Amino acid sequence: MKIYVVSGLGADFKVLEKIQFPKQHEVVFLDWMIPEQNEEFQHYVQRMAEKIDDSEPFYLLGYSFGGILVQEINKIKPAKKVVIMGSIRSDKEKSVLIKTGQITRIPKLLPVRFFNEKTTSIYSMFRKFFDPKNPRILQYFQVRDPYYLKWSIEKISDWKFEENPDVIQILGDKDIVFPIKNCRPDYIIKGGTHLFPATKSKEVSGILKGVFE
Fold this sequence. Notes:
Layout lengths: L1 E5 L19 E4 L11 H9 L8 E6 L1 H12 L4 E5 L10 H9 L1 H4 L10 H11 L6 H4 L5 H13 L9 E5 L14 E3 L6 H4 L1 H11 L2
Parallel strand pairs: 1-2, 1-3, 3-4, 4-5, 5-6
Helix pairs in contact: 1-2, 3-7
């Protein structure tokens, strides 16, 4: 069976490269696409879902923003199982910071040029959010198109979703992007920051082996 995987906001699959996926399944990584100008989120989800062959059963796995995306894809093309890592199951699990962005509309008001990779503000922001002690942070953060970044942060801020109890949630207890205090995860990674798929890969691999048996 295929496991379709979507990584996090701006991240390529280096953040997931240490994970040992169950050998009996085929892993298919879905690359982020650059959104069309003023593209609605549901239209973008539909385009991403077109990459999935639903003529046979499959699994969905999403990390961070990818976790949000695979839950939306699941409404269009239902998977046998949906697993999210370092992500949330509903808008009720958003952090105070993300909720503030939704209320104040700051992400929408920020100019695209703010998301230029050369600016110290965006650099420091992502270091703080993901894992300030990890020296490889910018190696994971490879999709740096300014419009894509602005668009994605707007969509995370605005996301509304009713929790699906069948979605399997794996969360780090030190995650400051999606704090565990707002969630009831199925699996907790002790000492795991938002980058736990990279820093706690052995533990994650064991969990996924059991989930995708």
